[in-house]
């Protein structure tokens, strides 16, 4: 063996020894992911543990306002986010021109109609005050839930995101209060009912099995959440590993045991 070859081999061995001596976190690839605080963050913590076993260090960045998460991804403050469904992203892209794309399904949170004043939809009084989210996609989702319960009727062809202007019939004369989604649980005592996103309901201590008078369908639900990334970066290995970690048996088991039907796998 020549002196050059021997020196090269020794240098390679020394480098391998040095890398092996590094802390595990230093050898891992990293990714920064935006999530909603509360229940969704709990799920993401399980994903983080699964990802660590695959050599990926996940830094979770919790938010309390839906509107800020895509903005942070667009500004490259995040590598990905995991909090939204397709109608919401479509509305954000239409309004703000984001170049953001879905890269892998996570879970479905069936939205519910909650009430502390009545026990059934039939008990809603004439002129009932009902709160709905004030963003277009979740507001439309709320109206579709109410239409499915025959509280209102929506004009034909309005799809997943109807607005209050698209109500064709309102036999009970319902009065709608459009509020920020996070404010609806606090407003519930002042309303006859409110359509509340599951993450905000869980954060407020509401139980989708006990406190709702109507719940969106679970099977074939078009509002499945997903991991999203900037267009052109959806094939990054770190993002693929994060999606694989989300779509794992460990996460499915956690959803079943922790949320018992309030949050269910969508993959």
TrEMBL record:
<comment type="similarity">
    <text>Belongs to the nlpA lipoprotein family.</text>
</comment>
<dbReference type="InterPro" id="IPR004872">
    <property type="entry name" value="Lipoprotein_NlpA"/>
</dbReference>
<keyword id="KW-0564">Palmitate</keyword>
<dbReference type="InterPro" id="IPR006311">
    <property type="entry name" value="TAT_signal"/>
</dbReference>
<protein>
    <recommendedName>
        <fullName>Lipoprotein</fullName>
    </recommendedName>
</protein>
<feature type="signal peptide">
    <location>
        <begin position="1"/>
        <end position="26"/>
    </location>
</feature>
<keyword id="KW-0449">Lipoprotein</keyword>
<dbReference type="Pfam" id="PF03180">
    <property type="entry name" value="Lipoprotein_9"/>
</dbReference>
<keyword id="KW-0472">Membrane</keyword>
<keyword id="KW-0732">Signal</keyword>
